[in-house]
Amino acid sequence: MSNQARMPDIASVSTVMVNSYVYNWRWTAAAIAERYSIDMEMSLVGNVFDRGPSNQGGTLPIWCQGRAGDPYYSECWPSTKIYKDDNSCPDDVSCWQDDGNADVVGTAVEATWPTGLTAMASSAVWAYLEDNVGAWPTARDSVDTRLIGEVGAGTGSIKTSVPSFPAIPENTHSLTIPANPHVVQGSGYTNLVQGSGYTNLEEWLHDAATYAEEGIPLWPVVAYYVDGSSGAISSCGTSSSTYDIATRLCGSGTDRMYSTLAGAEAVATTGGDMVYIRAA
User: Fold this and answer.
1) Which helix (H) or strand (E) is 247 found in, with range?
2) What is the pLDDT of residues 54-99, one digit of tens each?
3) Structural domain count of the chain
4) Which residues lie below 8 Å from residue 117, measured CB to CB, with a gap of 6+?
C-alpha cells in the first residue's frame, strides 16, 4: 500500500495476480512491462485497486507500459494474453486501459492459472485483509491499527517521516526444549508423536507458531481421544506442552493422528483413532 509504482511491475513470462489490494499508487499500479518486448501470459482476478490522496497517475490500474521511462505510454504486444475478471476499481468497471493490441482472452486457462487455485470475490478482499494482514494480526500495536484504519478510510498517504512508536510490554515464559529435538517422528522413540513426519523440535515450533499467529494458548492443553470405530470421545488429561501429548497422555499407536485444531475434539473420525488438543 502507498507506493510510488510497481504494485506490481509485471515482467514475467507467466503471472497470476489474485486477490491483491492495491492502494494509493502514485504513478502506476499493475503495470505490464511490455517495454522488455517479451510475450506474456497473465491472469488478474479478484483484485481491488483504490486510489488514495497520494495518487497522481492518469492511467487506469491495469495497463501495458510500452516505453521505458514514460509512465503513461501504453502499448501492449499483440501476442500478450491477458485474462481479467472481477477486478474492482473506483473509476472504471474493467480497471483496464485497453489500447486494442493485447489478446484479452475469455478464460484463465487460456492465459495461465495454477491448478487448484480458487479466487475469493473482490468484494471480500478488504474484509479478509483487515482481519489477517500484518506480521501478527492477533497482537497489533497502535501503529498497525492506525495504518490499517487509514487504508480502510481512504485517508492514508505515502509516508515521508517515521512517527513515534508505542512502548511494547515484554512478555516472558519458560522455555522447555523437547527431548530428542532432531529425531524424526515415527522412528521408534516412545516420546514421539506418530504420523506427522516432523521432528520433535519442528512440532514444538509449530505449536509456538499457532500460539503466536492464531492467539490460541496451547500451553497448557487438554488432550481428547476419539475412537474411530465408535466415535466415543474421552479426555486423556492436561499437559503443559504439546509435542508429546498423543503418546504421553493418550497412549501410543500408529493408527492415531495428531492435530492442534482448537475445538476439534468434538469431531469423530472413521478408519482410525484420533487425538485432538485444545486450550485448557
Assistant:
1) helix 245-248
2) 887 666 788 787 655 565 566 777 778 888 889 998 766 668 776 6
3) 2
4) 16, 18
